[in-house]
Amino acid sequence: MENSSSGVSYKKPDASYFDKRVLSRYAGVWSLWALGVGAVISGHFSGWNFGFATGGWGGMLVAGIIIAIMYLGLTFSIAEMSPALPHTGAAYSFARTAMGPWGGFITGLCENVEYVLTPAVIVTFITAYVNSILGLDPAYSPLLWIVFYIIFLALNVFGLELSFKVTLVITVVSLAVLVFFWVSAIPNMDFSRWALNIGVGPDGAAVELPEGNGSWFPFGISGVLATLPFAVWLFLAIEQLPLAAEESVDPKRDMPKGIILGMITLMLSAFMIVLLNPSLPGVGAFHLSSALEPLLDGFKAVYGDSGVVVLGLVALTGLIASFHTILYAQGRQIYSLSRAGYFPTALSITHPVYKTPYVAMITGALVGLAVMLVIWFSLGAEAGGGVIGSVLLNMAVFGAMFSYIMQAISFIILRKKLPDIERPFRSPLGIPGAVLTVIIAVVTLLYQIQDPNFTKGVLWVVLWFAIAIAYFAFVGRHRLILSPEEEFAMEHKRAASLD
């Protein structure tokens, strides 16, 4: 079946095609909340703190507020679109309905970069924690990466119910660890002495102020803007929730509640960690600006080194929660694009017993591992997990920012093109909130380009985009399948044209 206006062609598969691609429904509000918070929570354990080097404490705080505004605009938009278009495709599905097959594919591709590479970033942080706890030689880090991928792929493959139960438990434990840290840190904090211990050296780089009491904004407004890409790590991946739409018991009711509750939880946690972690004696913002284990350093400052193994294992929980939940999202994201024919359709086959997209999850994990190993061997093992994590983080944020821009634009177009579709939830921020999301995402991208680690990573992203777009142009667009996302988009396009 040709669709000449979009330059694509479809085939309508028989029932057996979808019989091999069945998902099962399990998730309620709290499962969805845990999926959203769990995906992000590692960003409160590691990664965000690199922003102190570019903005100081005040720069990090204001950058976090700006990014929180961007994510509020995004999540309210998603909370409206997801129950209106309750398909596993999520970002690709929204953009497909709003902007046609090419818009859907490009948006899905941006999100694919994010969800394949974010677990890779997190596993470098997990490995850094484990190396620190057990005193292992970092040269063996790739072996630990593989072990963690195998363990959490297995948990995701062998049953949806198991996966969501693990997600809920480990997310609650992670938040409990953070609350325990806040309660421990408050009596020991010395904000002015330690959080404000960053000054500007002659070369414009951050230097440590031995007595603290420095400026809130040592790098000025430009420092705040340069810190935006790091502040993203405090909320990155909350937008994955709609990928669970076809595994949610009642997505029209539960999806908006889950994503809004998740965002409120994360904003509270982000403020507390940015305030307390650098305010502890012996830690400080300057040390945290290059630390791979900021929360572990915070625990050590309060409790000393005597219980370092126990404290380290406690501090690992958030990283493990995010690694587990983003592997889930990665599988559903690849599954949805494959089921519709944008990626090879073999990737969307689900497990005959457990009804999980195991082929998609394993493939995504292998790609993520391959990228990590290429960077590891090209930069040299001596570069360390910090450099590799930073390169991967930039790649993941790059993909995420583009997907946010495309999703916000999709929201605006759907409001205008399809004003009458059923919307169980309407964004209180409306089109202005989506416009603000686009503006902040664009500014974040512009400042991300100035990070020297950006160019190392972005070349790989561009290469992946080039290969995937070439595949779709020459092969994929002629083999699209009438999946639920595609049928919904085409039906409403016809309805809009009749109006």
TrEMBL record:
Gene3D superfamilies: Amino acid/polyamine transporter I. GO terms for cellular component: plasma membrane. It is a multi-pass membrane protein. The keyword Transmembrane helix applies. Its main location: membrane. The keyword Cell membrane applies. It holds the Pfam family AA_permease_2. This is Amino acid permease. The lineage of its organism: Bacteria, Pseudomonadati, Pseudomonadota, Alphaproteobacteria, Hyphomicrobiales.
